[in-house]
Design a protein that fits this description.
By secondary structure, the protein is an all-alpha fold. The protein folds into 2 domains: about 1-55; about 60-183, no CATH class. It has 7 helices and no strands. The chain has helices spanning about 1-20, 25-30, 35-55, 70-90, 100-115, 120-140, 155-175. Helix 1 (about 1-20) packs across helix 2 (about 25-30), helix 1 (about 1-20) packs parallel to helix 6 (about 120-140) and helix 5 packs antiparallel against helix 6. The longest helix is centred in the C-terminal third of the chain and has 24 residues, at about 120-140. It is globular.
């Protein structure tokens, strides 16, 4: 049952995100109300994902070596920076088209490197696949892209945001019983 919840949650997550790309007419007819429906679908997907992931038996697919924690933490710092840069207009958000989706892909790869259990492979592999699909669909629907101009003070904001969010992520992992740093 947890496996099914996880897979259904991932499927709902993907469908809610790509709905406007695969059915633009239907999404447009929904108007502003469609945003609420998508938000509800995304919330439901997260509930299903959490219940499925936490409920699955720990089945080892592979055993990551200890040094992967260093690579994971470096990639996580990069992922948080990419996301912060996209919100502030700092580099590389002015150079790459999809900094948030690149952050998700980096986050997913980082987690696949240190989590070798089946639930993690399904979750992080599924979200990696979604982020790749989303980039392809966006690029196909909107082939032209103009890089945004750098914003004043963006780098400082991104640095502060990265430090705060990275520390918060580490704290949440610790509170959930998963110390994210090598011991």
């Amino acid at each position: 049952m947890p496996f099914l919840l996880l897979v259904l949650g991932l499927a709902l997550w993907v469908l809610a995100h790509i709905f406007k790309r695969i059915a633009p007419g239907a999404r447009a007819r929904m108007g502003e109300k469609g945003k609420g429906a998508v938000a509800i679908a995304l919330f439901a997907s997260l509930v299903l994902i959490v219940l499925g992931y936490r409920g699955m038996d720990f089945i080892i697919v592979w055993s990551p070596p200890a040094f992967m924690f260093h690579i994971n933490n470096t990639l996580m710092l990069i992922a948080v920076w990419l996301f912060a840069a996209s919100g502030t207009g700092a580099w590389p958000a002015t150079k790459i088209r999809h900094p948030q989706l690149t952050a998700v892909k980096t986050w997913a790869v980082a987690h696949l490197l240190v989590n070798g259990d089946l639930a993690s492979v399904i979750l992080f592999g599924g979200l990696l696949g979604w982020a790749v699909l989303e980039v392809v669909l966006i690029n196909r629907a909107e082939p032209d892209w103009t890089p945004p101009e750098p914003k004043p003070g963006a780098v400082l904001k991104a640095v502060v945001g990265t430090v705060v969010v990275f520390a918060s992520i580490a704290l949440v992992h610790w509170l959930l019983g998963r110390w994210p740093f090598p011991v």
